[in-house]
Design a protein that fits this description.
three-stranded antiparallel beta sheet, alpha+beta
């Protein structure tokens, strides 16, 4: 009971001190220390105990179960492929001159190349993606050189995570990571890398913080990530039990039983066992002549273990949208159905690649911002110019391209566009942009406007020679009449 409630009870209700004391004690909530505001850390995911248990189970499944390992490895192999490459550019609409733009991109490339080399990203970045898929989250503390602003990254085991601290008014805005402080270390709170939104700060608008934090498989109201394997752990467990049962049955079927009948009753049986050592290679059954033993196999009737195992396996693979023929089970697949089954998988892998690209963009921006904040020698990029830098990250190709079919397709597109221009349905410039955009699908980044401008420039510098022998070239027939004939 607060002061206002006491005042109302005493003045308006006329309650005495002892009565107010009784009401105050009755109003105490035994769970009051557990109270949390609705907007503060409203976590929708796993509680800390379940989260730590999930981390153990996911790691154990990846290291011991072939299907779990196959699923994670396939994701990593396709998503990371031959590795990510990067390049940088400056917005043409920014007003920055071409010379200055080239200078900015060289400086940015120098910063990122240094970061990539110092953190051995050619080898370690794929492992970071692997950790994220298994654990559901990635915590990478940053160590900044105060002389030149260069950045090195560490790694924090998610089991050391206590909780994620978010903005009270926006749970998607993750502010801090609180650690448990294992192995005798005191608990720590690290600021997550995010944009400085405090006007007046020197770093306003730049990325600052002490650790990167990236989570996957979570909803908006769930700041902590979830492993890719958590949805199929139970299915894998059931499949293991079925497989072990099958192995036991097979073991029994492949066993040899030596049946020995001994006269003389129970004592004679005991003496025979004692005096005749037995090898473990085969099984032995010793009975007296009065005992009858039947050995039989259970009748499974219509129960088909193969179908049960296939069902469980497909449940696990289907949870990750991976077709069963990827594991060598092609009996129910042909070429036509395989292509249809691949499409959902490729869409999932493209989505994961987008997440990985976002991680790299965040790291790159942070490195550039730190170089500016700590005034690295040779870097003169202004905060205003930062907004116009493009971080172009090239992701690995997910599928092999059939260039013969692509060539046929481009020929048909060119023919259609030519007819459209001739029929005055499209302008020449629009047709060029459409064709160049389609060529961009081959994997080479092409700036459409720049390419069209370059084509027009080349045409002006080297105009095509007129072809008078072609009536359709200029709409006029060639006049072969000589001057004398004309006279």
């Amino acid at each position: 009971m607060n002061k206002i409630q006491k005042f109302i009870g005493k003045v308006f209700l006329g309650l005495k001190e002892d009565e107010l004391k009784i009401l105050t004690e009755a109003a105490i909530d035994n769970d009051e220390e557990l109270y949390r505001k609705y907007g503060a850390n409203n976590v929708k995911g796993l509680n800390p105990i379940s989260r730590d248990r999930q981390l153990e189970l996911a790691f154990t499944a990846y290291t011991t179960d072939p299907i779990a390992k196959f699923i994670i490895d396939v994701i990593i192999d396709y998503v990371c492929g031959d590795g990510f490459s990067y390049s940088f550019s400056v917005d043409k609409e920014s007003g920055i001159t071409a010379v200055r733009g080239e200078e900015i991109t060289k400086q940015v490339k120098m910063i990122i190349d240094d970061f990539w080399k110092k953190n051995n990203m050619n080898l370690r970045f794929e492992k970071k993606v692997l950790d994220q898929r298994i654990n559901g989250m990635l915590i990478l503390p940053v160590f900044i050189n105060t002389v030149d602003g260069s950045v090195k990254m560490g790694f924090i085991d998610p089991k050391n995570l206590d909780k994620i601290i978010t903005n009270e008014l926006n749970v998607e805005d993750i502010k801090q990571v609180k650690l448990k402080g294992l192995n005798g270390n005191s608990p720590k709170i690290l600021n997550v890398v995010r944009e400085d939104d405090v006007p007046g700060n020197i770093t306003y608008g730049m990325l600052v913080g002490e650790t990167f934090y990236f989570a996957i498989n979570n909803v908006s109201n769930q700041p902590e990530g979830v492993s890719d394997l958590i949805a199929l752990l139970d299915t894998i467990d059931v499949m293991k039990k079925v497989l072990f049962k099958v192995i036991k049955v097979i073991d029994v079927h492949l066993s040899y039983v030596q049946h020995v009948k001994v006269k003389g009753g129970e004592n004679a049986v005991k003496d025979f066992k004692k005096n005749n050592p037995f090898t473990t290679d085969i099984q032995r059954l010793v009975t007296d002549k009065e005992t009858e033993v039947d050995i039989f196999n259970p009748d499974l009737k219509t129960l088909d273990i193969t179908d049960i195992i296939r069902l469980l396996k497909n449940l696990a693979l289907g949870s990750q949208r991976i077709p069963e023929y990827w594991m060598g089970d092609g009996g129910n697949t042909n070429l036509a159905t395989a292509k249809e089954q691949d499409e959902p998988t490729m869409r999932k892998f493209r989505k994961i690649q987008q997440q990985v690209v976002f991680m790299l963009e965040t790291m790159f921006k942070f490195c550039v911002h730190q170089a500016i904040i700590y005034k690295r020698a040779g870097i003169n990029i202004t905060p205003e110019e930062l907004e116009h830098i493009n971080y172009d990250i090239k992701r690995p190709e997910l599928e092999r391209r059939d260039f013969s079919k692509i060539g046929e397709g481009l020929d048909k597109v060119q023919a259609v566009l030519t007819k459209a221009v001739t029929a005055k349905l499209l302008s020449q410039q629009t047709a060029q942009k459409i064709f160049i955009s389609i060529c961009d699908m081959l994997g080479h980044d092409i700036d459409v406007d720049t390419e069209v401008s370059q084509i027009e420039k080349e045409v002006l510098e080297n105009p095509p020679e007129p072809n008078n022998n072609n009536p359709e070239g200029n709409g006029k027939k060639e006049d072969k009449t000589t001057k004398s004939e004309a006279a």
